[in-house]
């Protein structure tokens, strides 16, 4: 059982890690330095939007990859 990883898997894993840590770094820098003049609810909204953007990036990336992988298997 010598199965190799599907093409593009390593790149997508690296991008996922970068997006995750980029989101964490953005959140910390934003709350620490830029959010002092707005309310708590606005701060939460900005962080939620950042989470949604990161989720959309990862969701589209992994969905396209899995669809292409499914076509290759069939």
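^ structure tokens above, recovered residues below v
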């Amino acid at each position: 059982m010598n199965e190799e990883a599907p093409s593009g898997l390593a790149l997508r894993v690296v991008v996922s890690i970068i997006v995750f840590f980029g989101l964490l770094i953005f959140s910390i820098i934003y709350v620490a330095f830029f959010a002092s003049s707005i309310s708590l609810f606005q701060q939460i909204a900005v962080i939620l939007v950042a989470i949604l953007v990161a989720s959309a990036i990862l969701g589209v990336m992994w969905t396209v990859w899995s669809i292409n992988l499914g076509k290759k298997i069939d």
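Residues 23 and 53 are 9 Å apart (CA to CA).
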